Amino acid sequence: xxxxxxxxxxxxxxxxxxxxxxxxxxxxxxxxxxxxxxxxxxxxxxxxxxxxxxxxxxxxxxxxxxxxxxxxxxxxxxxxxxxxxxxxxxxxxxxxxxxxxxxxxxxxxxxxxxxxxxxxxxxxxxxxxxxxxxxxxxxxxxxxxxxxxxxxxxxxxxxxxxxxxxxxxxxxxxxxxxxxxxxxxxxxxxxxxxxxxxxxxxxxxxxxxxxxxxxxxxxxxxxxxxxxxxxxxxxxxxxxxxxxxxxxxxxxxxxxxxxxxxxxxxxxxxxxxxxxxxxxxxxxxxxxxxxxxxxxxxxxxxxxxxxxxxxxxxxxxxxxxxxxxxxxxxxxxxxxxxxxxxxxxxxxxxxxxxxxxxxxxxxxxxxxxxxxxxxxxxxxxxxxxxxxxxxxxxxxxxxxxxxxxxxxxxxxxxxxxxxxxxxxxxxxxxxxxxxxxxxxxxxxxxxxxxxxxxxxxxxxxxxxxxxxxxxxxxxxxxxxx
Length: 481
Ligand SMILES: Nc1ncnc2c1ncn2[C@@H]1O[C@H](COP(=O)(O)OP(=O)(O)OP(=O)(O)O)[C@@H](O)[C@H]1O
Fold this sequence. Notes:
Blueprint: E1 3-11, E2 14-21, E3 25-30, E4 34-37, H1 38-41, E5 42-48, E6 51-64, E7 67-81, H2 85-101, E8 107-112, H3 121-135, E9 139-144, H4 150-157, E10 166-170, H5 172-183, H6 188-191, E11 196-200, H7 206-214, H8 221-230, E12 233-243, E13 246-250, E14 253-257, H9 258-265, H10 275-286, E15 291-299, E16 308-309, E17 329-332, E18 335-339, E19 348-351, E20 356-360, E21 382-387, H11 392-400, E22 414-428, E23 437-440, E24 443-447, E25 466-478
Parallel strand pairs: 8-9, 8-10, 10-11
Antiparallel strand pairs: 1-2, 1-7, 2-3, 3-4, 5-6, 6-7, 12-13, 12-25, 14-20, 14-23, 15-19, 15-22, 16-19, 17-18, 20-21, 21-22, 22-25, 23-24
Helix pairs in contact: 3-8, 4-5, 9-10
The structure holds adenosine-5'-triphosphate (ATP).
Adenosine-5'-triphosphate binds next to helix 5.
């Protein structure tokens, strides 16, 4: 690649020849050798007299104790000393230009959930996020969430002309609130174009894990912040769950059966901390439930092998089509209502009982559950996992493989990419107790009678059909393609 600058400088006290080429690679040769890629390894820089201080954040194979640790990014400041002002100016202009070319954000709204995870959201912001944003020269407005669903209100109020992105320092819950807030605005088409970033600071960090795993980086707050700083984005599919005129926009998953039962009912073991999920999963497997019900779905090409073609009429919950003639969506004045109802001729159906149904938009639903290894951020499909029957020993074995994604190879698991999905949930099979929850992005969407908790505040009702459709690449996330 063509050199744009070459200079004799002193770098951290060593004489070297530094070169910067057109692809943004900064190299040094002489008393020490090395290189960095400006857009990829540099948080920012500052000028100190005729010196430039480079704030580097390069990937290293970290060594911990005696053995090798996990790869991760390490911050190091390097000082380049120039002999004159002219050279200093040339170099700082060239570095700035290289950073500008990669489309870095300049102004961010940062939403921090102080109660995320073990109540560490604020600490994560001050120790990992803020120092990097400052070093990158990004101006930011930080808002702490002060009540349940405050993030949704903030997303509804945000002025898109004032920010280049909105970043959540939280778990997945606040992120999903921001998505729903943006999509419920009258100007949702403009608002949803604003890139969304996620810094893991909650108990459920499935989106952060999916994004960081995609770029081969560890799931930590500093690595996630640097991804936002680098500014590269990609589209993200958005699923919309609908029941009559009630809707909920989702970017992670919908689940019914075993996983939803564990997620919600294990709350009663919260005093156990992280162990509660494992302990409650074991309890549920020993006393395995199956649920009656029916699912319908439109498979992606190549996934037509399961279920049977459905030739009947599915009554829909579709709203009126926009009078402006938007052909892809149904648009109403008060926000986005989801993609158009898809033709019923391609539906397939499958009758219960089911052990579990798991509908995923991204590969990871938490940092250690690789639910849907084939899920892509914007392929326009949801990855549906179905389990109808499974011996208890095989189920236990299978759940042990969920961290690696190995569970999908089991003969008891069906893995189907779908364009649309419909769930008609019913109560427990072979039991007088009803029970059952539909869980979406970590929130109870609907619960049946005999279930834990109060159903009166649930978003939807348990029993009537819940329809899920997906719109390809509707949202944008800070994540390199
Ligand atoms: N100040 C607050 N008071 C009460 N609830 C809040 C506050 N701030 C945020 N919340 C709520 O906390 C919930 C969870 O947030 P988030 O996803 O960031 O954390 P989490 O630790 O991953 O969540 P969870 O505890 O559900 O696993 C959201 O529903 C959000 O509305």
